[in-house]
């Protein structure tokens, strides 16, 4: 016989059911921590999770969906990307009026995804007091940007609707640099339009380096070192935090964290902690000790 116990919500929870839920949550955490998500490789279990997530969102929010059924927008984002519009109650649940033009948002997403590493565009994930907290990848460097625009051009049959302006191939080095600048203006301009459409004002940069270098090439970059200062209208916070390379060590140690310490003295770690004084002056924290 299973005993019932009071829940935090004021009702009752069957202890056996509570244990099962805890096991399911633990199993889910274990799955997500060890399995890379790909929109094209969906299993019945993932489909069940997606459905459950939408049901949970619907309890508290009105939302729109950006379709990403086969990963055509981004292969690492969910097949149905949820855009939370506002918190809802039982009273207004059936009087939904969209606060965003989803077609315009989809267009901005398609145009801006080239600006960031692996096409991971700025995507709202939390709605707090009417403000969107978003996630994204870092800015794509010229190596990835040229590689991906060339890839898209080839596999679209020699045309790309997102980048329709035909340009002659520059012959001298100055023209090449000018062409690079124009390309960055274009793709990062679309990224900024999306940020503004989402009313983003603050950008928290977690990179531990100013630019990530692979095989001698600048692969990704940070808004804080954009030479043209395209992101100057936003408040930039540099909050260095170890990236996926460090957590690969965690995986290689069979997910055991004991003895794993990030070495902040490595040569490539050059991004300083930079937070505007107005955010920190009342916190009584010695930020010089931050690591």
UniProtKB/TrEMBL annotation:
Top-level taxonomic group: Eukaryota
Transmembrane segments: none
Protein name: Myotubularin- protein 14
InterPro entries assigned to the protein according to its UniProt record, in alphabetical order: MTMR14 (IPR039802), MTMR14_PH-GRAM (IPR039803), Prot-tyrosine_phosphatase-like (IPR029021)
Gene field: MTMR14_2
Organism, as annotated: Characodon lateralis
């Amino acid at each position: 016989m299973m005993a019932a116990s009071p829940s935090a919500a004021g009702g009752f929870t069957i202890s056996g059911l509570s244990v099962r839920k805890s096991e399911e949550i633990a199993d889910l955490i274990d799955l997500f921590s060890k399995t890379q998500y790909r929109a094209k490789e969906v299993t019945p279990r993932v489909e069940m999770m997606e459905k459950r997530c939408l049901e949970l969102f619907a309890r508290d929010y009105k939302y729109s969906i950006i379709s990403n059924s086969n990963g055509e927008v981004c292969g690492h984002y969910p097949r149905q990307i949820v855009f939370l519009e506002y918190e809802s109650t039982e009273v207004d649940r059936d009087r939904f009026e969209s606060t965003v033009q989803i077609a315009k948002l989809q267009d901005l997403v398609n145009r801006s995804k080239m600006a960031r590493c692996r096409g991971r565009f700025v995507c709202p994930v939390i709605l707090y007091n009417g403000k969107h907290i978003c996630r994204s990848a870092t800015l794509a460097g010229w190596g990835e940007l040229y590689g991906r625009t060339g890839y898209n051009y080839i596999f679209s049959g020699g045309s790309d609707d997102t980048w329709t302006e035909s340009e002659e191939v520059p012959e001298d080095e100055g023209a090449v640099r000018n062409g690079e600048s124009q390309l960055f203006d274009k793709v990062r301009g679309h990224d900024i339009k999306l940020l503004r459409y989402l009313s983003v004002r603050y950008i928290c940069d977690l990179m531990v380096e100013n630019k990530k270098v692979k095989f001698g090439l600048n692969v990704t970059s940070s808004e804080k070192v954009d030479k043209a200062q395209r992101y100057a209208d936003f408040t930039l916070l540099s909050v260095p935090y170890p990236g996926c390379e460090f957590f690969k060590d965690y995986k290689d140690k069979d997910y055991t964290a004991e003895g794993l310490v990030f070495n902040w003295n490595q040569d490539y770690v050059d991004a300083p902690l930079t937070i505007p004084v107005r955010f920190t002056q009342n916190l009584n924290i010695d930020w010089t000790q931050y690591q």
